[in-house]
Amino acid sequence: MPSITVALLITVIKLLLLLLLHNPRGTWCQNFEKSRSVWVEQGLVKGKIFKIDGRQVQIFRGIPYAEPPVGTLRFKKPVRKQRWEREFSATEYGPPCTQFMDFHKNDRFSAQNMRAESEDCLSLNIFAPYNSEDESGQHPILVWVHGGSFLAGSSDTGIDMEVLARNLAFRNITFVSVNYRLGLFGFMSVHHPDGHVEGNFGIWDIELALEWVQRNIKQFNGDPTRVTLMGESAGAAAVSALAVSPMTKDLLSGAIALSGSAVAGWAIHRQGGTPPNWDMANIADYIRCNKLIDEADLSDTLAQVPMTERDRWHKHCNLQERIPECLSNSAGQSLNTAEMLACFRLHVNVSESPMFWRALAAELGVSKMVVDGELIIDSGTELIRAGARVPLLTGVARREWAHKKPLFYLFYRYVNYSREQVESAVRRIVENGFANTLSARMTNSTVDLVANATFLRYMQDVDFAYDMPGVVARLQDLESDVEFVAPCQAEVNAYVASGVPAFVYSFDFVPRGDVVEEDRRFYPMFGERSVGVRRRDRKRKGHEQDAFHGLDHAFIFTEGYSSNFHLEPYTRRDKAMSRLLTRMITNFVATGDPSTRNFSWPPCGNGTMQHASLNMPPKMIRGPIHFPTPTFWNDEVRMLSKYQMADPSGRANEQAVNELTYEERVQLRAYKRAWYALWAFVFAIALLIWLLIVCAVCHWSRRHNGRSAYDNIVVNR
Asked: Apex CA 129: angle with CA 125 and CA 130, to 5°?
């Protein structure tokens, strides 16, 4: 009997441990103190007050700020939420917006809520300091825009509420996080025959949320005159665009962009002559199967479902279960723009063919913003120069794509690769990355010119016979520089030119523990059950770690966790980095200056360019971030891209050359003179070598053939 009791006790303890491990928010139950109700323009809303370490925080989750964007409101700007009759319970997160990638499906803090994804998703959450003795205080506001390629994520992904309270609310910051439409619903663009462009619906959502904050945040002890918008990755690009938009002139006082910029080629579609990937007509072609999704993207998508379901999806074109009648080839070919848009509004059902939309997202990539002439009036640095007006804090990680695997570069086996294969990988990055930052397409010959210059810049000292990991590391650097470093510095330059303060950083902190990545996939040998996969990246000699994309997120909202990876262990040194980073952010939100008591962080401007290296300890470094990378991409390569090489008939493209400024023409002539001088030098060396060879041959001939033909004749007298 005692043994049974002990066994039962052990079982109960195990169950309790499992509940604690799988419910990181469980401690909130014991911290709950009371409810609080406040009036907003829509009516009464009820939240909760929690007590942590003797301090109080008020939390309101899932407050709708717009009408559900469904039916006739699909693919339109959001509409302000109407009044509700009864008290609205804002005690749980609202459903996330429809996801087009499964990146966050196993998120430690939002996985359960992710299962409730919906088109009716436009809500926001508020975490604010609370003092029951004085409810009149007003605190500066930080509005958070999540990342995820504009295809995935929500306002609660990667956010530990208790850590958030300690890092932000207890530093007298009112924190607001926002859901916005993604993928098809948030970023499908519609090009009308009269030239008018509709799109950016997800960005309009954020703009409306900022309006809601202005009208209602005082009720939550927030100061509407001090609103800073902060985002990471794609969220940072949205922040970058909104900070300079004419629609947000009275809505913002500052902006923080972590690893993302509107100047990047993946952020805003630039090439006016070609429609963006997420254009309505292009998507319709995939639905009709006039265009087929790449087999690799189909396979990657099906790897996320059990084996028995794969055959079911494979039977359908592009993994679709049903094609809307109005978009079938028999009916859809004759639709005009307005009719096709009506068809998308009323008859396209994402839930019917989820595998198709996942595969299509993999095929089309980031769902970009577009220039609509209203919210986003331009692209590139022209957009920044036209609207820069509030202080900016921005930066990048030391090596943004350091966690990308070889298969991202089509290296499927761990073997050594030839120079030609690496040249091909470099060219793909130039075509798919840098070319998207230009307002016009490059000719093939110009792509070759830029790719060759890039190859020399990044690969000239790589041993291609043996150093495959070294090749991948250089490709990671190349892609990081094109997509993050150069755009960030270009944006900073535009702010400086406009006389607006810009604080720049490089996140260089590297944890001393392991970085553990987690995922779940289906494998044939394991049947119908998904298998958890853990990859531990250890710091070891010859394999030094670097700060990578999203690592800074793990020091702001959690204790060492971001979607799909975490730090083991989370050390005192890591906690010190968290305190430093969040102190810099909260200081910027409160005062417009990220400097701390022990670290002075001056902005760029007045002829000086510097950035903060965020490490332990931090330090200021003179010059642009990761110099000379930004100069190579923003000046040298951009100038080469404007110079079109001669076509087969021998005629040069004079229009592209005429677009160069006087300074660029002078620099181009200098490059051409240097190019000619290089070839002249090579020719001179070759001529000298040839002359030396000729002289050597002549000298050798004289030594061996100097005697007369008659020297061997002996004459007897």
From this structure: 110
pLDDT at 13: 53
**Cα distance between residue 514 and residue 539, in whole Å:** 7
For residue 347, report the phi and psi dihedrals to the nearest 5 degrees: -125, -15
- Using CA atoms in the order 570, 398, 484, 244, what is the torsion angle rounded to 10 degrees? 70
Contact 31, 40 (CB under 8 A): no
- Read off the tokens for 241: 């665009």
C-alpha 233/C-alpha 149 separation (Å) is 7
Q: Quick check: 581 and 552 in contact, CB under 8 A?
A: yes
The two structure tokens encoding residue 571: 């050390």
The β-bridge relationship of strands 43-52 and 514-521 is unpaired
**224-241 tens-digit pLDDT:** 999 999 999 999 999 999
pLDDT single digits (tens) 478-515? 999 999 999 999 999 999 999 999 999 999 999 998 88
Answer for the pair 616, 576: CB distance below 8 angstroms, yes or no.
Answer: yes
**The pLDDT value given to residue 399:** 94
Task: Please choose, from the candidates 244, 559, 530, the residue with its C-alpha nearest in 3D space to the C-alpha of residue 379.
Answer: 244
pLDDT of residue 440: 84
Q: Quick one: 624 exposed, middle or buried, by C-beta within 10 A (0-12, 13-18, 19+)?
A: buried
* Structural Rg of the chain based on CA atoms: 30
What's the CA gap between 566 and 183, in Å, rounded? 27
> Which residues have C-beta within 8 Å of that of residue 378, sequence separation ≥ 6?
371, 386
Helix (H, G, I), strand (E, B) or coil at 177: strand
pLDDT tens-digit readout, 574-600: 999 999 999 999 999 999 999 999 999
Q: 400, 343 in Cβ contact below 8 A?
A: no
In this prediction, residue 136 carries a pLDDT of 77
254 DSSP β-pair partners: 228
- Give the span between the Cα atoms of 284 and 552, in whole angstroms: 39
Cis preceding-peptide flag for 95 (omega within 30 of 0) = no
In whole angstroms, what is the distance from residue 406 CA to residue 472 CA?
A: 6
Q: Are strands 222-232 and 139-145 parallel, antiparallel or unpaired?
A: parallel
Q: What is the mean pLDDT of residues 408-437?
A: 81
Q: Give yes or no for a contact between 176 and 592, defined as CB atoms under 8 angstroms apart.
A: no
CB-CB contact of 243 with 384 (8 Å): no
Two structure tokens written together for 582: 């969040």
For residues 671 and 256, what is the distance between their CA atoms, to the nearest angstrom? 38
Residues with Cβ within 8 Å of 453's Cβ and at least 6 positions away in sequence, in order, are 636, 637, 640
Tokens for 643, please give them: 């110079």
- The yes-or-no verdict on residue 357 having pLDDT over 80 is yes
- The pLDDT assigned to 406 comes to 65
Stated length of the chain: 717
- Are 247 and 207 in contact by the 8 Å Cβ rule? The answer is yes
Which pLDDT belongs to residue 563?
Answer: 79
Query: What CA–CA distance (Å, rounded) separates 710 from 584?
Result: 97
Q: Give the pLDDT confidence of 108-117 residue by residue, as tens digits.
A: 899 899 999 9
* Four-residue CA torsion sign, 399, 402, 407, 413: positive
Dihedral pair phi/psi, residue 253, rounded to 5°: -120, -10
Question: DSSP label at 473?
Answer: H
Cis? peptide before 617, omega within 30° of 0: yes
Domain spans of the chain, in order of start: 278-364, 661-704
